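Pipeline run #58 for the internal structure catalog. This entry was flagged by the ingest filter as a single-chain record with no existing model, so it goes straight to prediction. Upstream metadata was stripped on purpose; only the residue string is passed forward. Reviewer on rotation: M.T. Logging verbosity set to normal.
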Amino acid sequence: MEESVGLACGLLLAAAKHAGLVTLTHTPSPMNCLARLLDRPANERPYLLIPMGFAAPDRRVPDLVRKPLADVLVPYLSPS
């Protein structure tokens, strides 16, 4: 079941981005406080919070640069 939730969340995040929205995924642990706050039954278990909306016009986004693959790849060589 968790795999289905993960796939659905990924599709929701992609759809939100395509629609021009910004999202933030948050997985607080434990989520018991959220279930109590929302008065949910014991058989329901929250997995993920996804706040979503439009970005502020004056937002600042860090310019992240990925390392080259050669800097992080460790090839696995099978013993001969």
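catalog note: The first strand starts at residue 22 and ends at 23.
catalog note: The chain is about 35% helix and 5% strand.
status: ready for reviewer M.T.
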